[in-house]
Each structure stands twice: as structure tokens, then as C-alpha cells.
Amino acid sequence: MPDGGSLTLRTLDVEFTETNKPQRPDSSAGEFVVLEIVDSGMGMDERTQKRIFEPFFTTKELGKATGLGLSTVYGTVSQHKGWIDLDSEPGRGTRFSVYLPASDSRDLKEGPQDNATEFFRGTETVLVVEDESAVRRMMVRTLEGSGYEVLEADDGVQARRIWGGMKRRIDLLVTDMVMPNGVSGLELAREFAAESQELPVVFVSGYSDEKIPGGFEFIAKPFTREQLLIAVRNRLNERRGELQSTG
Question: End-to-end CA distance of the chain, in Å?
Fold first, then answer.
């Protein structure tokens, strides 16, 4: 909305049966909570709408966005068995409707109580390198919540500075593959490994066909907190044979 306008958010409850549920493959019957976000901005043409949830697709100019925001939202909603409806026209604004399965307080738990919980925990120091701030914050909170000490960098240049002063404390590198400012995650891994051959590395990327060297862990964006914790713990524990599935 370059000239201003209105942004409206609202929530509502809906219930679908097998006969009236939306005609789309990811919809289902049941009770849902809907979050609607409506703006009066420029809107989108059909070509843009078809690509809007693709990782790294953005309509903003180079350097202004990474194109991971909506793809991350799409992945998170899908993992929770929901879906997103999009209604937009050029010059008439945009409406996003996010459908999530409803639950009540009786369904809420204190947290995971199974044997896998302890596997996720650790006390090691992890360097997280990720230029997308929302993704980086999620990774940092997830790892710190499981006991890890976390150092964070928003690009390879900052990661090099942190590594230069704290390399002896860093037990694991978690890095995005594609980053701005001319330093990729693969370059970082190779540089750091040259100084510390025992350094475990976990790569993350929005490109599913990214070529990852052998011996490294890889998780595709968008990923869950559990997938991140499993990948980290797998790399730290691999020599003891304590591997878990990320499926």
C-alpha cells in the first residue's frame, strides 16, 4: 500500500462437512479457526498469485526481501493440516484466509513427555547463520529452549567475525546455503572446517535440489522445530550412533 490504505484482521470459526468443504485437495471436514488479513493495496495478477508461496519468489526489488516469508507461513500451516485461500485483483487489494483446525483447552498438553524429549536437549554452543530474521529468531529460540548456547549471525561476514573470536567454543555450525554479501553457507563450512576439521555442520535451504556435499546434514525450508532439533542432535551425536529420523 504505497499511498496508505486499510489493513483489516479478523478471526472467525467455521465448520465444514464432506459435502460443503472447499473444493481443493488440501481441505478437510471439521471445525476450523480462520485468520483473515485484508488490505486495500495494489493487489496481484494471476501470474503472481500462482507463484506467491514459492520459496525465494518476491515482487520486491533485489535486496529488499528474500521471498521466504509466505513460503514459511504456507509450510507451517500445511504441517498443522490447514490451508490458505488467496483472493486478489490488481488495483482491488488482497485477502488471505488462513484455515487452521480448531481445538479446545482439553486438547492442550504441558509439552512432549516421551523419551525423545531428552534426545533433543543439549548444552553445546551452536553458531546459527541465517539472513532471514524471522527464520533466525525461530531457530535461536528453539535451540535455546532446548538448552543450547546460541551465537547468531545474519550473514557470512558477521559469522566470520564471530568465528574468529570464538572458534574454540563453537561445537556446531547451522547455516543457510544462500545468503547476501557474497559469502555462501558452503563457503563458510569449508573455511571453518579447514581450521576445525571436527566441526559438525547443518545446512538449511529453500532449494530442495541444492547440492549438499557428503557428510553434512541438510534440512529443507520450511522446516519444523523438531526437524531442526533432530538435525542438530544427529550431527553432535553421530559418532555415538544416536541418530533419529527427520521424516
Answer: 40
- Kindly report, residue by residue over 86-103, the tens digit of the pLDDT: 999 999 999 999 999 987
For residue 26, give the nearest of 75, 63, 81 by alpha carbon: 81
Q: ∠ CA(111), CA(112), CA(116), 5° rounding?
A: 155
Contacts of 64 (CB under 8 A, 6+ apart): 58
* Residue whose C-alpha is closest to residue 167's, from 156, 157, 159: 159
* pTM for the whole structure: 0.55
Q: Distance between CA atoms of 146 and 139, rounded to whole angstroms?
A: 11
pLDDT of residue 105: 53
Distance from C-alpha of 31 to C-alpha of 141, rounded to nearest angstrom: 31
Residue whose C-alpha is closest to residue 189's, from 159, 209, 166:
159
